[in-house]
Amino acid sequence: MADLKFWMDGFGWLGALCFLASYYLLVTKKWKSTSYRYHIANLIGAVFLLTNTLYDVSYPSVFINGCWAGIALIGMVVDRKQK
């Protein structure tokens, strides 16, 4: 069981780093809000944090990370239609 906790905590940290890195790259103008890299980083971050918060039974965090993943998917669809 300790091994599973290690992996779930790792997913949480990786998800947080994905969010921070994508936001940093956005505000420093290295990425655009319409780039797939930005959406993918947010989607991966949301999925990792969703996994972590489900394991930790933190339903408000599950909700917000599920919404974040959905928004990232919507962003990819909208940007694809505009290109």
From TrEMBL:
Keyword hit for Hydrolase: no
Key words, A-Z: Membrane, Transmembrane, Transmembrane helix
Cross-referenced Pfam families: CBU_0592 (PF26604)
Domain CBU-0592-like as annotated: residue spans: 9-77
Family matches, as InterPro entries: CBU_0592-like
Transmembrane segments: 6-26, 38-55, 61-78
Identification of the protein by name: CBU-0592-like domain-containing protein
Organism of this sequence: Anditalea andensis
